Amino acid sequence: xxxxxxxxxxxxxxxxxxxxxxxxxxxxxxxxxxxxxxxxxxxxxxxxxxxxxxxxxxxxxxxxxxxxxxxxxxxxxxxxxxxxxxxxxxxxxxxxxxxxxxxxxxxxxxxxxxxxxxxxxxxxxxxxxxxxxxxxxxxxxxxxxxxxxxxxxxxxxxxxxxxxxxxxxxxxxxxxxxxxxxxxxxxxxxxxxxxxxxxxxxxxxxxxxxxxxxxxxxxxxxxxxxxxxxxxxxxxxxxxxxxxxxxxxxxxxxxxxxxxxx
Length: 262
What we know:
Blueprint: H1 3-27, H2 32-53, H3 56-78, H4 84-96, H5 115-144, H6 158-167, E1 169-172, E2 182-184, E3 186-190, E4 196-200, H7 210-217, E5 224-229, H8 233-246, H9 250-261
Antiparallel strand pairs: 1-5, 2-5, 3-4
């Protein structure tokens, strides 16, 4: 019953998530106009769903999902761990699809009480997969190509080197001006004698001015430096959304699989 309305909410969410991903990849920012349209439309469709079904649990789930996911997203944003577009996307999604759409039967048969939570967990899981790819690439560069990965950074703590190994790769510093998808993991300072000191900068905040600040940190360096790829997280949110529809909560399924195996 009312499958058309659920399909409309799914289609609306997929459209705006895809649109925001495209904007973020192309422009490196998402206009607030996207969310100013997405949020009221999604909310209106959810209210209409409640009006037609009178399902009290649906409206409660929408309120709890928006409160919990929204609060969590905003907190991560102010901590500098989340982009503004990412937080707004999850809030809009909580208003539009608070629970798993009933017309979709996830293949893994594992879902979260709040659909947006499954989307977020899937997004984090997918973004984490890149760690293994970078580690394999760095292993090849070190042992296959014989590259000295930490030349000029020999005095850096071992922990920083390990984190850089799993979260970054080395590229020519000149590429940074031509590609917005790299965030430098190094900073440079000048000693009193005029020589340069290079340091690894593993932790940084996400902000509107972060790209300019990060480039300023490495001005004066030459050759290759450590960077981390900066694929917009909203792309992973979109992928997590599709996965949540057709697969379910992938991480919860993996955890359940591990528990059963043990």
